[in-house]
Each structure stands twice: as C-alpha cells, then as structure tokens.
Write a structure and sequence with these properties.
The chain is α+β, with helices and mostly antiparallel strands. The protein has a single domain, classed as Alpha-Beta Plaits (2-Layer Sandwich), CATH 3.30.70. Helix content is 14%, strand content 14%. The protein is built from two helices and two strands. The longest helix has 5 residues, at 21-25. The relative contact order is 0.36. The structure holds iron/sulfur cluster. Residues 11, 16-22, 38, 56-58, 60-61 line the site of iron/sulfur cluster.
C-alpha cells in the first residue's frame, strides 16, 4: 500500500464538545493528544487514517496536506 501524504488537522473549536472520541480512536496515542484533549493540531500526521474525522460526532475535524519539510 503506498504511503499516505502527511496531513495537518484543524478543529472547529466552536463546534467541538470535547468528547475525546478523536483521541480515543487515534492510533498515534499519547503523542497526538493536544492540551485541549483533542487530537493534535499543528503536528503533521503521517498515518492519515482519518478515523478521527470519521468518528467526530459534530464533524468538526478537517485537514490539509502538511507543508513539505524545508
Ligand atoms: S471527536 Fe470532535 S467533538 Fe469530540 S473532542 Fe474530537 S474534535 Fe471535539
């Protein structure tokens, strides 16, 4: 299976109900938990499985391709 391109996640903070589902399902575990108990933002995710986006009950997680390393 080809390696996926890394992504950066964004969370719509006004919609987030802080349920923690995105963290619970994340295969990156502790390294991907933000201080807000959501998945990390501003940290490139190189797994890009997108299960956090799928599980979010308020569909407030989005992503963009991560910037290429300089
Ligand atoms: S799954 Fe969605 S609503 Fe729940 S903590 Fe994560 S971003 Fe917030």
């Amino acid at each position: 299976m080809p390696k996926k391109e890394p992504v950066i996640f964004f969370i719509g903070w006004n919609a987030c109900i802080n349920c923690g589902a995105c963290v619970a399902v994340c295969p990156q575990k502790a390294g991907f938990i933000s201080p807000f108990d959501t998945i990390a933002v501003n940290t490139p995710c190189d797994i890009a499985c997108m299960v956090c986006e799928d599980i979010c009950p308020v569909s407030t997680i989005t992503h963009e391709p991560a910037p290429k390393p300089a």
